[in-house]
Amino acid sequence: MKRTWFAVLFLAFAAALGVYEQVSLRSACSAVESAADVVEQAVEDGDFERAAQLCAQAQAAWDREYVRLSMLINHAVLDAEKTHFRVLSDTLRTGDAEEAVEAARELRAGARLTRESASVTPGNIF
Q: Could you please report the per-residue DSSP string of the chain?
């Protein structure tokens, strides 16, 4: 009987960990997508200083989530998103609006890809 309880508790823990991972991932990626939208709008308005501040805030939030997500998700996928943040920061410093908008779009696309590649779906499982 003890083995059965242990198995049930282990399965409950594994399911809870999976739900926690999915909620954390969706929250972090949604925040990055929203930040990319706001940064893109600030760049289109010509406010590079505000865009750089927003990018720095979003990157700090992503770095806080990275610690938690890196325990559960492939590091290469998460590191690609960090690279997108660096590219966006660099283009905002140069003041090139076209490049900055493109970098914000790549950041948004990277967040979507991260969420989709780590989501629990039949296609990802099988």
A: -HHHHHHHHHHHHHHHHHHHHHHHHHHHHHHHHHHHHHHHHHHHTT-HHHHHHHHHHHHHHHHHHHHHHTTTS-HHHHHHHHHHHHHHHHHHHHT-HHHHHHHHHHHHHHHHHHHHHHS--HHHH-
Here the tokens at position 34 are 């929203």
Which pLDDT tens digit goes with each residue over 51-95?
Answer: 999 999 999 999 998 888 888 788 888 889 999 999 999 999 998
Q: Selecting from 3.30.70.380, 1.20.120.660, 3.90.1170.50, 3.90.1150.10, what CATH number does the domain 2-120 have? A: 1.20.120.660
What is the value of pTM for the model shown?
0.83
